Amino acid sequence: MQFKDCEFKYSQESASFEVIPKENIVIQQEDLCVCVKLVHSKTVVGTVKFWLNLELELLFANQDELVLTLPWTDMDGFKGTEKKGAKLFESISVKFKRSS
């Protein structure tokens, strides 16, 4: 699933970038793969991909809504190695909530 109808916000104060879907996205499965790509002149310069199990994250947090922030330094590299490549961000936050 790609987000085609999104609002993009950049804050110079906090040096943060937000991608906000204009409508709620309903995810039918527990596992979510988040992929961030840095593209320059139509060439992919860097890619980061990580998986979240939404049901387990919400269960462990004992909440119906959660913001999960993952610092770049806490992520492993290619296939679990230390080889991370270019640093694409300081941290990434994913906000999700359980549907009613």
What does this structure look like?
With 100 residues, this protein is mainly beta. The protein has one domain. It is 8% helix and 47% strand. The chain is built from one helix and six strands; from the N terminus they run ββββαββ. The chain has one helix spanning 54-61; strands at 6-11, 16-21, 31-40, 43-53, 65-71, 91-97. The strands form three sheets. The chain has a two-stranded antiparallel sheet. β1 and β2 (16-21) form a beta hairpin. The longest helix is centred in the middle third of the chain and has 8 residues, at 54-61. It is globular and about 40 Å long. The model has no long low-confidence stretch (mean pLDDT 77).
Distance between the termini: 22 Å
Give a short account of the largest sheet.
2 strands, antiparallel
Described by the principal axes of the CA atoms, the overall outline is: globular
Number of helices: 1
Low-confidence stretches: none
- Strand proportion, as a percent range, falls in over 45%
Q: Please compute the radius of gyration using only Cα atoms.
A: 15 Å
Number of strands: 6
Mean pLDDT: 77
Helicity range: under 10%
Q: What structural class should be given to the helix and strand makeup?
A: mainly beta
Question: How many structural domains in the coordinates?
Answer: 1
Order of strands side by side in the largest beta sheet? Answer: 1-2
Could you spell the SSE succession in H and E letters?
A: EEEEHEE
